[in-house]
Specification:
The mean pLDDT is 97. Helix 7 links the parallel strand 13 and strand 14. 49% of the residues are buried. The protein is α/β, with parallel strands linked by helices. The chain folds into 2 domains: 80 residues, 2-Layer Sandwich (Chitobiase, domain 2), CATH 3.30.379; 323 residues, Glycosidases (TIM Barrel, Alpha-Beta Barrel). The chain contains 13 helices and 19 strands. Helix 2 runs parallel beside helix 4 and helix 6 packs across helix 7. 30% of the residues lie in helices and 21% in strands. Strands 6-7-12-13-14-15-16-18 form an 8-stranded parallel beta barrel, surrounded by 6 helices. The chain has a 5-stranded mixed sheet with strand order 1-5-3-4-2, covered by helices on one side. A two-stranded antiparallel sheet has the order 8-9. Pfam families: Glyco_hydro_20 (PF00728), Glyco_hydro_20b (PF02838). Its EC number is 3.2.1.52. InterPro entries: Beta_hexosaminidase_sua/sub, GH, Glyco_hydro_20_cat, Hex-like_dom2, HEX_bac_N.
């Protein structure tokens, strides 16, 4: 079997046909996002799809069957296809990846490329962490100092914060509203929903630097990593300011789900989270928050909870009637180091190998919306570093959330090495090789903090 993620069923007779690019598509009843792809000597290629997303995923499968060269910017002409039948549909409705563009800004063209990589893996949610202590990446026309002041910092910690090292250069950037509308439309064409997140009441130092009256105390955009104790005030003027900010966000992002953070706010402030969540509901949206929001008091029933501190908070959220996305740090934080190899660059967190990600099985799988992998970018300061951290572990995660649960690790590793890594090569993805980092992927002497 050469498809990745692995389909529900696959049959092949070992023969091939020439394929010149033409095929028939028929809409049929079936599972959401599902498809049937048939390649026969008599009829060539036929696709039956239950909806537009199913047709899109059938085209992705056909691209995979066409060989790695089909993933190049200029694909080849006629190709040989195996005579086969593929029947497929996803296991989970939410198959997500979170990308932190606040700690290190990812230029628009690189973000669009990342959307393409999610589409290749049939992931359908891009969660954008747009604001944090270290940067504000959303253009606010109503409060322009947010991006003008909060969008850059004079320096950055380089390596683990305990080392005291710094990069010695400014960092910044933000997405204009037109940029973000373009990203949303581009993703929608690939059946990917973009979930924006503005983090409150903690992780807000970039906003406080722009408008000091918002914070419990003042200070500049943070140049360090970790948890900043400064949080937003929970007074009415600050709440009104953020209602205004979220209203502006909603003008750009039409999707139903909108993130409000709620995590790692020292001392917490449930009133702020509750009021912002209610505001989003009044605007016809669904709040999405990290699992600390469960401690904020009664939340709107439509709130989606991202369970990152293990899976127990997610189980509690389910018991309270909330939809849940599982994203436990010990399983799917892809910024964590990939092995105990001494050349792993800036080794932080627990060792989370490719095999560890593949073995992850979401708790309460029959009750949750799905799962997502998270990429925090404190130590991922370029697209090359992002590629190294994400792949091929994100490929393994894609199979976890798409494919049936009866997975075969050895078969997956063979399929990955023989068929899928050549596709990533054709796409120009600078992934981590299975046997360890290449010399230029290591960062000798830059300290991490492995656990």
């Amino acid at each position: 079997m050469i498809l990745l993620p692995r389909p529900v069923s696959w049959t092949a007779d070992g023969t091939e046909i020439d394929f010149h690019g033409d095929f028939r598509v028929e809409r049929v009843a079936g599972p959401v996002e599902g498809y049937r792809l048939s390649v026969t000597r008599e009829h060539g290629v036929r696709v039956q799809a239950s909806d537009a997303a199913g047709e899109f995923y059938a085209r992705q499968a056909l691209r995979q069957l066409s060989g790695p060269a089909a993933f190049r910017a200029v694909p080849p002409g006629p190709v040989r296809l195996p005579v086969c039948e593929v029947v497929d549909h996803p296991r989970f409705a939410w198959r997500g990846a979170m990308l932190d563009v606040a700690r290190h800004f990812l230029p628009k063209h690189d973000l669009l490329r990342y959307v393409d990589l999610l589409a290749v893996h049939r992931l359908n949610v891009l969660h954008l962490h747009l604001t944090d202590d270290q940067g504000w990446r959303f253009e606010s026309k109503r409060h322009p100092r947010l991006h003008e002041v909060g969008g850059w910092r004079p320096d950055s910690r380089f390596g683990d914060r305990r080392s005291g090292g710094t990069a010695g250069r400014p960092h910044g950037g933000y997405y204009t509203q037109d940029d973000l509308r373009e990203i949303v439309s581009y993703a929608a064409e690939r059946h990917i929903a973009v979930v924006p997140e503005i983090d409150v009441p903690g992780h807000s130092q970039a906003a406080i630097a722009a408008y000091p009256e918002l914070g419990v105390s003042g200070g500049p955009v943070w140049t360090d990593w970790g948890v900043n104790p400064n949080v937003l005030k929970a007074d009415e003027p600050t709440l009104d300011f953020y209602r205004d900010v979220f209203d502006e966000l909603l003008e750009v992002f039409p999707g139903e789900v909108v993130g409000l953070g709620g995590d790692e706010a020292e001392g917490g402030d449930g009133r702020f989270v509750r009021r912002m969540a209610q505001h989003l509901v009044e605007r016809g949206r669904r709040p999405f928050g990290w699992d600390e929001v469960l401690d904020a008091g009664p939340l709107p029933a439509s709130t989606v909870v991202a369970s990152w501190r293990g899976e127990e908070p997610g189980l509690r959220a389910l018991d309270r009637g909330h939809d849940v996305v599982m994203c436990p740090e010990q399983h799917v934080y892809l910024d964590y180091r990939q092995s105990d190899h001494p050349d792993e660059p800036i080794p932080v967190g627990t060792a989370t190998t490719l095999e560890d990600v593949y073995r992850y099985e979401p708790a309460a799988a029959d009750r949750v919306l799905g799962a997502q992998a998270n990429l925090w970018t404190e130590h991922l300061d370029s697209p090359r570093r992002l590629d190294y951290a994400a792949f091929p572990r994100l490929s393994a995660f894609a199979e976890v959330v798409w494919s049936p649960p009866d997975r075969d690790e050895a078969e997956f590793l063979t399929r990955l090495a023989e068929h899928h890594l050549p596709r990533l090569d054709a796409l120009g993805v600078e992934y981590r090789p299975l046997d360890g980092p290449r010399p230029w992927q290591a960062l000798p002497g830059v300290p991490g903090f492995p656990r």
